[in-house]
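User: Modeling request: complex.
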Amino acid sequence: MPRSKEAAQANLENLHRIFTVPEAPDSTLGSIDRDIAGNVAGFLQTHVVALERKLIEIEQDFSNARVPEEPTFVSDYTEFLTDKLVAQSVNTASPAFIGHMTSAFPYFMLPLSRIMIALNQNLVKVETSKAFTPMERQVLAMIHRLVYDRDDDFYGRWMHDPRHALGAFCSGGTVANITALWAARNRLCGPSGEFRGIAREGLAKALRHLDCAGLAVLVSRRAHYSLGKAVDLLGIGRDNLVAVETDENSRIDLQRLREESRRLQGEGMRVLALVGIGGTTETGNVDPLEAMADFAQELNCHFHVDSAWGGPTLFSRTYRPLLRGIERADSVTIDAHKQLYVPMGAGMVVFKDPETLASIEHHAAYIIRRGSKDLGSHTLEGSRPGMAMLVHAGLSIIGRKGYELLMDGGIERARHFAGMIENHPDFELVTVPELNILTYRYVPAWLQQDLARADAETARRINARLDRIIETIQKRQRAAGNSFVSRTRLALPRYRNEPIIVFRSVLANPLTTDEILASVLEEQVAIAAQPDLAAEFAEIMAALG
Amino acid sequence: MPRSKEAAQANLENLHRIFTVPEAPDSTLGSIDRDIAGNVAGFLQTHVVALERKLIEIEQDFSNARVPEEPTFVSDYTEFLTDKLVAQSVNTASPAFIGHMTSAFPYFMLPLSRIMIALNQNLVKVETSKAFTPMERQVLAMIHRLVYDRDDDFYGRWMHDPRHALGAFCSGGTVANITALWAARNRLCGPSGEFRGIAREGLAKALRHLDCAGLAVLVSRRAHYSLGKAVDLLGIGRDNLVAVETDENSRIDLQRLREESRRLQGEGMRVLALVGIGGTTETGNVDPLEAMADFAQELNCHFHVDSAWGGPTLFSRTYRPLLRGIERADSVTIDAHKQLYVPMGAGMVVFKDPETLASIEHHAAYIIRRGSKDLGSHTLEGSRPGMAMLVHAGLSIIGRKGYELLMDGGIERARHFAGMIENHPDFELVTVPELNILTYRYVPAWLQQDLARADAETARRINARLDRIIETIQKRQRAAGNSFVSRTRLALPRYRNEPIIVFRSVLANPLTTDEILASVLEEQVAIAAQPDLAAEFAEIMAALG
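Assistant: Request completed. Predicted assembly structure:
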């Protein structure tokens, strides 16, 4: 064999090897794999470096835009990965990471994920998913039942019906919300008479057919930003996503909702949908869903509830009533990678009426043929992994009672934390937790008193300075790497509707203890006492005289 | 402690345990996990039952819509899972599974997936992804460079620029295609003068501003069905996705393209985009991208290339010229879970101009703030897993030369298979492979001769009967479970543009051997000889006289 042919042959053999030979248990990757399997928490503590490296430094390790010409040994790559990527990740599973909605998940999810990935099913069609298709349909039915509680006959009739779907499994809540509004839009503008429907003729002709100036979606100002994307994508326009004022408890103001709706109608607009929020992202509050359902009925529009976060609260006998009215929604979003404790990449939207999703139905000749049970005919996405298996596992293994404990635990932990904040002289609870999210800020006791007495202009000046301090505290706490709360900017009636920056805490990890919560506050107090921030406070004090 | 309190305490302890105690290595799940790690292929062969069970029977195991009240032991659940789900999955990794685009992936992807899942990063924002954000930006830059081959300065300037993104990482090619057309639409209808842009004002006002009757997208009739979803979602309407006729090689007919475009302009329509296909889903053909780029320039419209399948062919020095002109596209879709051999759930779209994605930019107060490097500001999806890590691993470990071998191997295997089909007296090659996809059908030698002589009406009658037979053969082969080809319906000039049903074969698995390909054909011959099908052929022969 000539030299080059020999080399090509060797390359081919190497290539076959990477597809057929597993990592040896004592290889770098094999041993990391085993470490994680045996002790994720320990692995994360050992490998995820707490101290924040500047992003600009991290970028140096990921700055070559050229795909390497030659192959690399898996062991060399794994070392690079542990040093440069794993070490510089965020320990989202840490019980002191209480700033975002990404938290720990149960151990069994890890080996089950390996099964899911090894099977590499594609849920777009039965030919590449087989049993995964009925399983996903069952998961959607379980979530549907959690929300709408229909009887066995209903689910026997619809769950596996090839021409219908009770919902859509998505990569996340954003696609779920988009799917809901897409279906609502296409249903409102469905075929009638000469008009062949918006799906075929497009939005402009649909508006002419409906004889209106435009479509509008009404939601509180606490809406998730995915709704803005949805109305942009759907051609409705962000101006027509009307952000209604909220009350002191961050719930939609029903009076203002009526006013906005009247205004829109006066302008010749058609209200496509009301969106109620079942756990706002920033404050965890729940809109008055029952009253919104009444109003949606009055307007004869679609009623969507975005309970990406709060939906699983329905598992709790105690707190389910907080979401009263959700069962009247035409569609409901629930994220599994949030409070169903499934790894990232799993959202769902369910529809009250099994006919609704027909408005976005589509087919193709080589897959998702008419009459097939292929789930791809009712989803925004095409090829999709078998994430529903992990939701199925969570629902089966944890059970309703298990999720109830998780939900109750989170809400009670948040109330407890709120109490700790209120009892601390130097903190101010900004929003009271209704579910398991709260916001607060650091305001020294003396300044709280001054603020209470201050006129509007003085308060504005103080709050502007406080904003910068709160932001600095949040960033330094994050950089120190022991604990993490997020921050956001809220406009609340209590603060004259002028936006202020607050700490935001999400209490979803069942392993978060009182000690951890206490230490989060202590650390914030300590940061506030650092010389530059202490000097800022001294200046504020001096300015107040 | 009273009884109920004791029980509640025990429940809480159980709950903590599932979050903190890993599966014992000798537990059911632990041992499956180890089996898969040590030998996926063996695990799949042992556990995935080849013989097809009827879907309606499988559904029985997934028909309870009620979430179980009580928790289940992980071991019990795992047994259910292996019996009812794993056993009834599709062995997509089998080298005899040559019917769809889902195939095997290298072994190292499995332990790396475990790392990715254990880290549970959320790419929407740096606060929950840290090093994963620069890594994903690097992956997008690598794919950008693969397509556009800009210099180091370009990537140094744009790769990590917080206000820009070279592309979007998506759950799959459908979201990638939607993102491309969304950006194109919003760019065409951007703010100008009084008009504040389609993102804010919506599609109807944008059309008025552009002074046109509607937007249109032109693509060949071989387009992936995701483009239909895209124009529906974007409010453009499916009627305005114009499916242009193809030539004998399933490539867009440039003459017809010009005619359609003239017709649209005559109707006052504005062409938003031309879409070229870099590997059609059904036949693997590549549109004349260079000529389409010229024409897009002439029309002054967006030029998108959907190379979800064929994109990685760019790694091959030999076959890269097949995609000539792709570097002139404004946007390009490439799926990683197809020919980058990454597990399901990874697609990408890259944009020639780093400014394009600004048209869909969005922000929120609590995350993806203005000026942050958060990738969430330029994606359709919100929360997203760290799948980019697996793409990064593939590109690094396999390298350009490794992917070249994979691409060359697939194309050569397809040519070889085409030769086998042509040399077989009882098969007819319907579409010649350009990349690694081909279609063919079973037509006994004598019938091929008759068909060649038949008039249009007779040919139509014969083809209708052949269609049913081909469909039956495909279903029986799938049900037998030894091998799998898919089927589709194609209209080709050679067949008077009347749709016929064909077998479709996708040669992406590097472990597929000549022996396997030969046995696929043998099995089809054997099925065709089964009494009922033999009788069908006898009837056809009799009818022909």
